[in-house]
Amino acid sequence: MSKDLKKRFDRIVEILVQLQSKRVIKAKELSDRFEVSLRTIYRDIKSLEQAGVPIIGEAGTGYSLVEGYKLPPVIFTKEEAMSFVVAEKLTQKFLDKSIGGHFTTAMYKVKAVLKMNDKDVVAAIENQIVMNKSNYDIFNHEVPHAFTTFFESISNQQQIKLCYRGASDDSPQTRIIEPIGLFHESGFWYIAAYCLKREAYRQFRADRIHSISLTSVSFSKDHISIGDFLTGRTVNVQRTYVRIAVDKDIARYLQWERNFYGFISQEEKTKHTEMTFETRSIEEFARWYMMFADKAIIIEPDILKKSVRALVDKSLKKINS
């Protein structure tokens, strides 16, 4: 079998698996997934139909398998089996207790259909991967079912009652929300939702949730997508252009944090690295800059220089008092 023919065969098999994994799937999704043209996807779908796979196709909707059609048991490769081990370890650290428990149960079922050799591979490596505990909690341990509740809310279009303590709240406050999605950012999980109290879209950090319950009340309106929510957060935010020159011996250590402060690009000079940012908060940037201020120079803007100078003066007063 030629390389191109094998590649097409593997893709067609994967398309069949994709069709079984979703109720309806669009040709564009398959095109993006396999990085081929729509014409190629149409041809592959035709090949499946000619092979006897009962596929229903509707213009503008997508493709689906006829109800009741079942595929043979899925066979996993050794590499796929090993990826399951890593995924299981990640869920133990980055998902709440309820979802993590469901995933572990699902993993038992996955492992049950592995070939004996692959079971040995999984057993050999699963104890060699350790996820150390974070220095901070990303969930409130008293609310182990938060994600499950959010997923049910989104699926059933039902409102949620939260007891939530925001960063500026003295005590937890009751909120009624209509979730639109979840996202992970800066080490924390956030729930994007429409807040009926604020009558606006807001984000709620998972570790600040003190209690949560699903109500019997349906959503009050149709909502934007999670993608639109995330895009909207940045459209109307005022940003300030910043350029700093950082000594080369410290610049490499900033690459893990710089993206949190609007990093755009960097240019290597003879004695330093020049970095460019678009920051949402000069004060936050100034506080971060203070961590390596003895190894850097502010090129622009002047407002950042004033902010850093104010922090230094305030610190000196505290030290000398």
From TrEMBL:
Residues 8-63 form the HTH deoR-type domain. It comes from the Bacteria. GO terms for molecular function: DNA-binding transcription factor activity. InterPro entries: CBASS_pafABC_assoc_protein (IPR051534), DeoR_HTH (IPR001034), HTH_11 (IPR013196), PafC-like (IPR028349), WCX_dom (IPR057727), WH-like_DNA-bd_sf (IPR036388), WH_DNA-bd_sf (IPR036390), WYL_dom (IPR026881). Keywords: Transcription, Transcription regulation. Coiled coil: none annotated. PANTHER family: PROTEIN PAFB (PTHR34580:SF3), PTHR34580. This is YafY family transcriptional regulator.
